[in-house]
UniProtKB/TrEMBL annotation:
<dbReference type="InterPro" id="IPR021228">
    <property type="entry name" value="BrxD"/>
</dbReference>
<protein>
    <submittedName>
        <fullName>Uncharacterized protein</fullName>
    </submittedName>
</protein>
<dbReference type="Pfam" id="PF10923">
    <property type="entry name" value="BrxC_BrxD"/>
</dbReference>
<dbReference type="InterPro" id="IPR027417">
    <property type="entry name" value="P-loop_NTPase"/>
</dbReference>
């Protein structure tokens, strides 16, 4: 019995066969043209598919989500712990930073690696690790446009949106932290957070107040409304406002430590964006924010700074360790970089390898102990990773089996991309398994004569 189908361009046709598990169908059209067409483009009275309609198990669905992420060379967040291999040295270095935060009240770790080396994956893994160990965590991924280093307000907003900590078996955010802080009457002298906490304490907070705390732009009249008596400073969207946002972040870290948490861990990904700016002013302001955040985390900024006006640039600056830290130009809002010493912040920055010519100020802020260069995974770690990937693939596509010879061939194919980085190794692994699966499927279901 023949099956008639219709294509929006080629018209009516007769179905002859299929390949790739029914994803492509061979159709003979009325003009005798024979074409392989994706099944989604063909209809009869209803959408056609030669694959039997059946529900897949939860385990199969989860594994397919993992494989689809692997096609892009990334690991999904829910599988980070399961798919982290060969990073014991790097993890130990990160844990040393956590210990230093607990003992000394601040630390910095700069993670360096080429594109595709696994920097973002390592940050995701350590983010989960810090969360499990009782730290408050937040992360920001920089980009050349909105979340650029010379726009400190936008980076602060990303930190607030991603801030998490564990309270029992529940994950909480910045609003929960501030409600907790309001209940114990912390930080009466914090210029930004104290006015807001006084309203939270009286149950007078509303959504606009929370948006203001989280760094969103809100109407200025709201801040001056006598009904709320907030009278809070403006969250300045200025490139020179790095001092304000380091000050607020160190205030949140103080809350966290006072409330019994071990400190605030901040993750900054794609930090190399700071060195790739079109204009000299955006480069200078972006580096200033990163340098200020580093020095704040290392407790090397002054809680009572001596600020002067630089006549050559017109900026308000503080001379510190041979560098000039920039402060915003609005005197009323000219806070120090740190709320209290110690800052309570562990800053983790991921970037491509730093070079003295482009990242001079950053390198002056840290010593070799604060730098971590991601090592290339050895062949054993890659083979373990590939075996885990194959296991997920066979769960994602029930019925697919791979022989020892095919396993070795696929692994060899993936190893050819090893030099390009872990991301390309993962993508090549999935490609090799796809070839195996589709070639078997094509052999098993050749076109009908």
């Amino acid at each position: 019995m023949s099956i008639s189908v219709r294509h929006p361009i080629f018209g009516e046709g007769e179905l002859l066969g299929s390949r790739w598990n029914g994803e492509e169908l061979l159709v003979k059209f009325e003009n005798n043209l024979r074409l392989w067409i994706h099944e989604s483009e063909l209809t009869r009275r209803e959408r056609i598919s030669l694959r039997s309609v059946h529900s897949i198990s939860e385990d199969t669905h989860k594994c397919r989500r993992i494989i689809e992420a692997f096609r892009l060379g990334i690991v999904p967040h829910f599988a980070i712990d399961q798919y982290t291999f060969g990073r014991s040295r790097e993890t130990s270095k990160f844990e040393e930073g956590l210990d230093e935060l607990e003992i000394a009240g601040g630390s910095v770790l700069i993670v360096e690696g080429a594109y595709g080396a696994g920097k973002s994956h390592f940050l995701d893994y350590t983010y989960n690790l810090a969360l499990k160990r009782g730290f408050v965590v937040a992360q920001a991924q920089l980009d050349p446009f909105e979340i650029s280093p010379y726009r400190p307000m936008n980076i602060y907003r990303e930190f607030m949106r991603s801030l998490r900590y564990c309270n029992g078996d529940r994950e909480c955010g910045v609003r929960d932290l501030l409600k907790h802080a309001a209940n114990v009457e912390l930080a009466q002298d914090h210029e930004f957070l104290a006015p807001a906490l006084s309203l939270v304490r009286k149950n007078l907070e509303d959504e606009l107040l929370w948006l203001w705390i989280e760094g969103d732009t809100i109407p200025r009249w709201y801040l001056n409304d006598k009904h709320f008596r907030l009278r809070a400073p403006i969250m300045l969207d200025h490139s020179t406002a790095a001092n304000n946002y380091c000050y607020i972040l160190s205030g949140l870290a103080f809350f966290a430590r006072t409330l019994g948490f071990k400190g605030l861990v901040l993750f900054v990904d794609e930090a190399e964006i700071a060195f790739r700016q079109w204009y000299s002013w955006s480069l200078a302001k972006g580096l200033n924010f990163l340098v200020g955040l580093i020095l704040t985390s290392l407790n090397r900024v002054n809680p009572t700074p001596r600020i002067t006006k630089d006549l050559s640039t017109g900026l308000y600056v503080e001379e510190l360790e041979g560098m000039k830290l920039i402060y915003n130009g609005v005197k009323r809002h000219r806070t120090p970089y740190v709320y209290r010493i110690p800052s309570g912040i562990f800053l983790v920055i991921a970037t491509t390898p730093l070079h003295a010519c482009s990242s001079h100020d950053l390198l002056r802020c840290v010593d070799e102990r604060s730098r971590l260069i991601l090592s290339e995974l050895d062949e054993h770690a890659l083979e373990v990773m590939f075996s885990q990937l194959v296991a997920a693939y066979t769960h994602a596509y029930p019925g697919f089996q791979i022989s020892h010879m095919s396993f070795e061939d696929a692994f060899s194919h993936a190893m050819e991309r090893r030099a390009e980085g872990i991301r390309f190794f993962i993508k090549a692994s999935v490609e090799a398994l796809d070839i195996q699966r589709h070639s078997l499927s094509s052999t098993a279901s050749s076109p009908m004569k």
